[in-house]
Amino acid sequence: MPDDDQTSMAHAMAPPHVPALPLTLRINGSDHQLMVEPRVSLLDALRERLHLTGTKKGCDRGQCGACTVLVDGQRINSCLTLAVMHDGREITTVEGIGQEGAPHPVQTAFMDHDGFQCGYCTPGQICSTVALLRELAEGQASSVTQGERPVAFSEDEIRERMSGNLCRCGAYQNIVAAIRTAVGA
Fold first, then answer.
1. pLDDT given for residue 10 in this prediction
2. Residue 76: CA atoms inside 13 Å, Cβ hemisphere, count?
3. Regarding predicted confidence, which is higher, 139 or 160?
4. Cα atoms found within 13 Å of the Cα of residue 43, Cβ hemisphere only
5. In sequence order, which ranges of the chain are alpha helices (DSSP H)?
6. Domain 2Fe-2S ferredoxin-type: where (predicted)?
7. Domains, the chain, with CATH or none
């Protein structure tokens, strides 16, 4: 194929330029003004634009939970949502869970029970656990609960509620122990 044909084919296959949009992300209690293309994921905005690298990019397909953050208190996979969808909403990353010198009880429980090995999944596990504690306090049902009120707290309940967060090292036993302690705290 001649070079001119290859060039025109490459131009035809290139995605069109999409103008950046103004956006205010309220992250860990602070507003951040950004200009982002509409197709930028929340994960990429956090890591690449705001340099909040605690939230990890694992599978980038919503299957591992390493990118879990809280939006208005609800846990989400930040790789599966667009940053522009969260304009003005309250986003909490692992950096906003505790404070330096004063870790959140979930963070303390993870440290006390060695609820991590390599640590790559830990930020997502911690954010998900914070949401789990809120869900339990509100009496939200899970598939294990089967309509019981109040929600009975058990290891099966923990495992079900944390099933979206994978640990490739297999530290699940310690993670469950950490969560049991955090529920008591």
1. 55
2. 20
3. 160
4. 20
5. 3-13, 42-44, 105-112, 122-138, 155-161, 172-184
6. 21-97
7. 21-96 (3.10.20.30), 105-184 (1.10.150.120)
DSSP string, 130-144: HHHHHHHHHT---TT
| Token pair in block for residue 29 | 């209690």
Q: If you ran DSSP here, which 8-state letter would residue 67 be given?
A: T
pLDDT of 16 over the 90 cut: no
CA distances for 51 relative to 27, 43, 69, 76, angstroms:
12, 11, 15, 19
Strands in 30-36's sheet, in edge-to-edge order, are 30-36, 21-27, 90-92, 68-71, 74-77
Establish how many alpha carbons lie within 13 A of residue 104's alpha carbon, considering only the half-sphere containing its beta carbon.
20
- CB-based contact 58:120 (threshold 8 Å): yes
